[in-house]
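Supplementary Text 2. Reproducibility record for the structural model of the 139-residue chain.

All settings were left at their defaults, and a single model was retained for analysis rather than an ensemble. We include the record here because the model underlies the residue-level annotations in Supplementary Table 4.
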Amino acid sequence: MKHDTLFAVAPVQAGSTVTILQFRGRLALDPDPLAEIYAAQGEDVAEETVCRTLANLANRISAIQDHHRQSAFGDIPLPARRVAAIAGQIGLTEVALAATHLGNAATQADGVAIEATLSRLERCFDLAMSEVWSFRDSV
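Retained model, structure tokens:
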């Protein structure tokens, strides 16, 4: 088969290595909003509030994933903005930033950017869950 494109992709040689990139940094987390919630509400009520907020974020991210699977890019920006706002309120700055970038990519209907930023949002949220529980244990 002959390639008609000017810049055809070179075939990958058998035995090529694949490099897996791993995130080794720490998640950007602003502990002040969480500390304020715990100080204002007390430990039991604050823990319930934080759990409810994290569940809300998880549900919204799940809805975004559904929109992505259905290629409904136009339905992604609004829930992405909501995720960014909620995450920002409890100090999950990296999650908020990833959600903002996802909303921008969806507005531009850039499928590759949507895929990348959605994956980043998922990773950030998973890391944020661990960070929030670590913070909670230190209170």
